[in-house]
Amino acid sequence: MPENYTKILKKEDRDLFELLPGYACNANCRFCSIDPAKRNVNNSTKELLKTIYDAKKDGFKYLGIGGGEPTIRKDLQFLINFAKQLKFDIVRIETNGIALSRPDYCKHLVESGLDFVKISIHSRKAKIHDYLVNVPGAFKNILKAIENLQKLKVRIEINTVINKYNYKEYPQFVDFFSQMGIGSFCFIYPLYTGRMADNWREVGINIKKAAPYLEETFNLIDELELDKGIVFNIPPCCLSGHEDKMVESSPFNTKVGAPDITVESIDFDRIKNKTKLKRCQRCRYFQNCEGVWNSYSNLFGDSEFQPIYEKPK
Ligand code: SF4
After folding, report:
1. Above 60 in pLDDT, residue 312?
2. What is the mean predicted confidence (pLDDT) over 11-33?
3. Which atom from ligand 1 is nearest to the alpha carbon of 289?
4. Is residue 308 part of a domain?
5. How far is the CA of 158 from the centre of ligand 1 (A)?
6. Which of 152, 228, 272, 297 could pair with 184 as two cysteines, CB 3.0-4.6 Å apart?
7. From atom 2 of ligand 1, which residue's Cα is the shortest distance away?
8. Which domain holds residue 17?
9. Pocket probe mutation, ligand 1, options 208, 276, 287, max atoms within 8 Å of Cβ
10. DSSP strand E in the chain: where?
11. Which residues pair with 310 in a beta bridge?
């Protein structure tokens, strides 16, 4: 385990509090990693206000509100406003963007204090995006949402889940959205749990197959001098030379508060679901690598993870 991970975040490391108000959602993504049985597990407003208050008292600087889908909650504006009054430096939501196609709704969220939106987009092609999230018209709504948020000068970052339907088109995807003025991209290699575990043969893709396209995409992001390109859940041996893009290269310093679980340190917690292989001991990344997700190697095997001996050029 990287030596700077602690079970409970030290006071000075408390950066992001990720609040998951519940698991209800208005989409049905084929790669969703949440157990569908949890969809009706949701916190009350009173419980969430207490969690937000405690997070601020504990010293967290930023508040993220995710889910499930936060925009289907009637109290979202109220929660954002409460967090802003407590003086979190940044309040952001993580959303599928469908509800943000309504200009008046975006305006109300921003007036409540919303600073930043992470919006989930999985293709630049409407047909593919709508198929993946299982909602006809979702992509059209996202384009409207981007327009609405940009008019309100809200910071936008794109989250995208790497899968069989989109991995080859990522350079074109970045090109398309960067031309719309978005410069921040977060590539998430999915966890093979929930619906993703059921659909892995149809939607899943080997990390090694996706890696060359991600490399090309990161090179483009650097070439275009965009703000940010990061990737979650890929070990360094599969993207050697792009360690600066890997979220796990440095502590994420995040606590998660969900209706059914509290994770004191996301960095520390995820290690228990990963394994280092015997051959990993010979790898130059051994000390800092967290290993391979068990849910991945149970399905795809582990032969693609091979030690890297040389320093990348
Ligand atoms: S070979 Fe093992 S230690 Fe090296 S990067 Fe891959 S998973 Fe990590």
Report:
1. no
2. 96
3. 8
4. no
5. 28
6. 228
7. 280
8. 11-300
9. 276
10. 16-19, 62-65, 90-95, 116-120, 155-161, 184-188, 228-232, 254-257, 262-263, 274-275, 292-293
11. none
Mutate to test the pocket of ligand 1, among 189, 280, 302 (most ligand atoms within 8 A of CB): 280
43: its two tokens: 């916190």
Under DSSP, the state recorded for 6 is: -
Tell me: the pLDDT tens digits for 80-90? 999 999 999 99
Q: Is residue 23 part of a domain?
A: yes
Q: What is the CATH number of the domain that holds 162?
A: 3.20.20.70
Predicted confidence (pLDDT) at residue 126 exceeds the cutoff of 70 = yes
* pTM metric for this prediction: 0.95
pLDDT digit string, tens, across residues 97-120:
999 999 999 999 999 999 999 999
Ligand 1 neighbour 234 (Cβ under 6 A): no
Dist CA 217 CA 215 (whole Å) = 5
Ligand 1 centroid–CA 270 distance in Å is 16
Residue 307 lies in a domain: no
Task: Please tell me the distance from the alpha carbon of residue 161 to that of residue 287, in angstroms, as a whole number.
Answer: 27
**Total residues belonging to the chain:** 313
pLDDT 10s digits, 37-82: 999 999 999 999 999 999 999 999 999 999 999 999 999 999 999 9
Ligand 1 within 6 A of 307 CB? yes
Total structural domains within the chain? 1
Identify whether 5 is part of a domain: no
